[in-house]
């Protein structure tokens, strides 16, 4: 059985994590790889229901998802996690937990994210209606050495996915041996 790996997409709300996750999953499935997406919004409704947005709760959420990714990888499944995961120290813990781990920084400038804001969250956060909103009233610590950076305000989804696939291919993780 081929070994699984985890692609961890981190970035602010609206940067394109879920969109890239879906497109990447399709590309990997076309190559015959078993794939599971763990999307932040879905995880919060199911696996992490009841957690708030304190640093401790955010870290617990991220580490729970990391544990699921590790478990899936152990059974040959590729995990794609699309979570804001705002803190560097918690993402560093993921690296120690998950042997085949790829950090992808999904980035767009704040002003672009505010323009894209389909859910209206930035508007509410800027108006003080949402507290602890990452990137506005709560910190986001960008990765210092991610394996891949996707600039979603400058590249298409296909270009972003292409960068990730190129990295995975260079690691030899796309072949099924």
Rg is 16 Å
Name the helicity range.
40-55%
Main pleated sheet: 5 strands, parallel
User: How confident is the prediction overall: mean pLDDT?
Assistant: 92
- Give the terminus-to-terminus CA distance: 7 Å
Morphology call: globular
Would you write up a description of this structure?
By secondary structure, the chain is an alpha/beta fold. The protein has helices at 17-30, 40-45, 55-74, 88-97, 110-116, 121-126, 157-171; strands spanning 6-10, 35-39, 78-82, 101-107, 148-151. The chain has a five-stranded parallel beta sheet with strand order 2-3-1-4-5, with helices on both faces. Helix 1 (17-30) packs across helix 7 (157-171) and helix 3 runs parallel beside helix 4. The longest helix has 20 residues, at 55-74. It is globular. It starts with 5 loop residues before the first strand and ends in a 6-residue tail after the last helix. 33% of the residues are buried. The model has no long low-confidence stretch (mean pLDDT 92).
Features:
177 residues, alpha/beta, 5-stranded parallel sheet, 5 strands, 44% helix, globular
What's this entry about, in short?
With 177 residues, this protein is of the alpha/beta class. It has helices spanning 17-30, 40-45, 55-74, 88-97, 110-116, 121-126, 157-171, and strands spanning 6-10, 35-39, 78-82, 101-107, 148-151.
Topology:
Layout: E1 6-10, H1 17-30, E2 35-39, H2 40-45, H3 55-74, E3 78-82, H4 88-97, E4 101-107, H5 110-116, H6 121-126, E5 148-151, H7 157-171
Parallel strand pairs: 1-3, 1-4, 2-3, 4-5
Helix pairs in contact: 1-7, 3-4
